[in-house]
Design a protein that fits this description.
Jelly Rolls, Neuraminidase, 5-stranded antiparallel β-sheet
Length: 586
């Protein structure tokens, strides 16, 4: 306890010092408020209590993940996440491992926490010691009637039905393997949440299940809480065509009464499915797309894709916007905003939500959303430190407007140059340009390429020292942006197949200076790598900063085509702003 109190004092002092000194980009995780740090800290999930306090539950340990001493705890904030009380153990760090707590607050104020508990203290599989003991055992819960100051002495075990995936595991069903990341939600009188079972140790043959209680919200005797597990039958939510990795199922209720479920795969994309009967049956999961019938997959590595439904009835999805297949590369975090139409979610093109320029950090994951009166916060963990971040609501509103095709005005903030139908072989002066790392750069083109042959120079601002930026046609029918300070040169191209010879196209290159991300949009669609590459964006060299003085000379040479409109901004545009420009020109 003394160690916890010392940590609280130090973290509060650190936080207060940070508040006095912090400035710059709210998306940079260094500007967040610390929640807790340890050798291991995971799933910092928050519930807002009846009196407005925040209760955060998480998993922590003095060693790495799933090692002895791992246990679940709770802490409280009285000031919207700026500072936190000392941890209160929900389970002791001296007993069997407890892991991955998720909270639920009843209408009458009781707080329940659901978590994995290695109740049989399983320490080996097939005669060999194991390191992933946190995945084994019982699904349990405790409760608090004093806002998390103390927790029930009794631990209650949820009757998780043994199914085919259990019977086929290394323990022949005598030990179950599972975990959950989905926060319980109440629909009418019913409380439900999803979790993932595993059929192969340590993390293989995953499939989704749903726990449902008809009386959790009202029953004061925790021993009388009733549970059902769905889908009915012996098989969970799973599509064999999507591979072994189908994990971290989480759901949101749709306005039409259906449940929408998202989960991760190791195929470079998120998968989704829907249930129209509160989880009893599910459609066959499919690769998730931005809109029904779209060919644009929601690309994501083997990292948590987290769904949220906001008070305004709209949706958010946390993911990583690339086609990796491993646990790595969770930096930056991207977010997309969803709007429901006719019982289906239409997702916006995504925005960068959070990032760190410390590339030794694998990235941020296992988030939670806190929402109060139009304000938004996101929690996250880098596995050894958890933080909470204030989110600019205009970022979310821009995505929701995008999904509803409301964004149609021309963006003028930061616009330093605009020209319709510029003449070939013309030169213009761009004033008030800034260093890339200070604000960024955006080049917005509406043009027609009569030929997609590589090597055509579209625009060029290089000075005699080679400092500047230029755009060329490249292989595979793409446009490529080049950036140089005269010593360091970087370049990035649009995704292949997005440009069509002889057809007018809108192309936007966004250089987001503080996370050092270059991205491109073609006709309102953000490049994501498609079938050809893992990434549709790149992180440029940290040594590249100034590509111009205060002024820049922009040369527009003759090429086999025509520029119909060009805009240059001395800042990065959000994805939603670039799409607004695209819609404005239609």
């Amino acid at each position: 306890m003394k160690k916890y109190l010392l940590f609280l004092v130090l973290s509060a002092a650190c936080c207060n010092g940070r508040l006095l000194a912090q400035s710059g980009d709210w998306r940079d995780i260094s500007n967040g408020y610390p929640i807790y740090s340890n050798s291991y800290i995971d799933q910092p999930y928050v519930s807002v209590l009846k009196d407005g306090r925040w209760l955060c539950v998480f998993t922590t340990g003095a060693e790495s993940e799933s090692r002895p001493g791992q246990h679940v705890v709770s802490i409280t904030s009285y000031d919207k996440g700026r500072t936190w009380t000392a941890p209160v153990s929900i389970e002791a760090n001296t007993g069997p491992i407890s892991s991955w707590a998720i909270p639920y607050v009843t209408p009458y104020g009781r707080v329940y926490v659901f978590y994995n508990y290695n109740g049989d203290n399983v320490a080996e599989v097939n005669g060999k010691p194991i390191r992933q003991a946190g995945l084994l055992g019982w699904y349990c819960f405790k409760y608090s009637d004093d806002n998390g100051q103390t927790w029930s002495a009794q631990r209650y075990r949820i009757p998780v039905r043994v199914t085919a995936v259990d019977a086929g595991n290394e323990f022949k069903g005598k030990v179950q393997m599972f975990w959950g990341i989905d926060k319980p939600r109440q629909i009418g009188d019913t409380v439900l949440f999803a979790f993932t079972k595993l059929g192969v140790f340590p993390q293989g043959m995953g499939e989704g299940w749903l726990l449902r209680s008809a009386n959790l919200a009202v029953e004061r005797d925790a021993g009388k809480v009733q549970w059902q597990m769905f889908p009915e039958g012996d098989k969970g939510v799973r599509n064999p065509a999507l591979g072994s990795v189908q994990e971290e199922h989480n759901i949101v209720p749709l306005d039409n009464g259906s449940l929408y479920c998202i989960f991760r795969t190791a195929m470079g994309f998120v998968a989704s499915t829907v249930s129209h009967d509160l989880g009893r049956t599910w459609a066959m999961p499919q690769p998730a797309t931005y809109a029904p019938g779209s060919d644009q997959l929601i690309r994501n590595p083997r990292a948590c894709p987290r769904l949220f439904k906001c008070a305004n009835g709209k949706y958010l999805l946390w993911f990583h916007h690339h086609g990796g297949i491993t646990f790595k590369e969770r930096n930056p975090v991207w977010i997309t905003g969803g709007v429901e139409k006719n019982g289906q979610i239409y997702w916006s093109q995504p925005e960068i939500l959070l990032y760190t320029n410390n590339l030794e950090v694998n990235g941020m994951s296992y988030p939670d959303l806190v929402e109060e009166k139009g304000k938004y916060w996101i929690t996250e963990t880098q596995k050894s430190e958890a933080k909470v971040h204030v989110i600019d609501p205009t970022l979310l509103e821009g995505m929701w407007a995008q999904a509803q095709a409301q964004a149609r005005s021309e963006v003028t903030q930061g616009l330093v140059f605009r020209k319709k139908n510029p003449r070939a072989n013309s030169t213009y002066t761009l004033r008030d340009m800034k260093a890339l790392r200070e604000s960024g750069l955006t080049i917005d083109l509406r043009l027609t390429l009569n030929s997609l042959a590589p090597g055509q120079l579209i625009a060029d601002s290089r000075n005699p020292a080679g400092q500047g930026c230029w755009i060329t046609t490249d292989t595979a029918g793409t446009l490529r942006l080049h950036l140089s300070d005269g010593a360091v040169t970087e370049s990035w191209q649009t995704d292949p197949g997005m440009l069509v010879a002889g057809k007018s196209s809108h192309v936007v290159f966004i250089v987001d200076g503080q996370p050092r991300i270059v991205s491109g949009l073609v006709n309102g669609r953000l490049c994501d790598g498609g079938k050809d590459r893992q990434f549709g964006w790149m992180r440029f060299n940290e040594k590249l900063n100034s590509i111009s003085g205060e002024d820049m000379m922009l040369k527009l040479p003759r090429f086999n085509g025509r520029i119909r409109n060009i805009r240059v901004y001395n800042r990065y545009l959000r994805t939603s702003e670039a799409i607004s420009n695209y819609n404005h020109g239609l």
